Amino acid sequence: MSEVLRVKNIEKYYGNKSNLTKAIDNISFSVQEGEFVGIMGASGSGKTTLLNCISTIDKVTAGNIMIQDQDITKLKGNHLNKFRSQELGFIFQDFNLLDTLTAYENIALALTIQKKNAKEIDERVKEMARKLGIVDILSKYPYQISGGQKQRVASARAMITEPKLVLADEPTGALDSKSARQLLENFEYLNKELKATILMVTHDAFTASYADRILFIKDGKIFNEIIKGEDSRKIFFEKIIEVVTLLGGELNDVI
Fold first, then answer.
1. Which pTM value belongs to this model?
2. Which of 64, 94, 141, 202 could form a disulfide with 8 if both were Cys (CB 3.0 to 4.6 A apart)?
């Protein structure tokens, strides 16, 4: 497997000299092609800041982030916009679908921006919709479909450009338990069948148990790491809970 992501000694500070906050404290890790990696931590641990830096939404104060040999900390302007649109896929807690566009148009938008021809767009949208089981809702608007369906549309939109890395921020946070389970099964499909490399931030141990590996963040540092390996998802879930317990009083913030 090739390395998709390498985070090297990154730090992130907020504020000024009189009131400086260190959100990320010298974090390093890598993600291999085809991995599904979860990031967990209590509110304020730095996990969302970490994801924002990897997603190019925020800039690091120090260190480097490499995505397939491209140092994204050095990209600016149009080069950064192009990289973000072509190489990264995003799945957000609140879906971020455009209400004035149908599900089909929301999924197709990224390809339209890339100036793909209409025939290719149509073929790719319908193929992705078939894989995620949303063909029957392509003509509907976001207000006409359920939360679980919205998140599958958002997943299709994230995958349609065949990105190097899919970044998911609390993807099950706005879903009921049934919709969350369906979405996580879709994530498994994206990862195992479509070979998507996924980096997911979550508070939820059940959601995290679908990943291959979990990084636990505490006070801006990597506190622990566990790997699923040959364990069943139930056993992996129990191991996640054990580590969360080690985080002490933050248990209720994490699961």
1. 0.89
2. 64
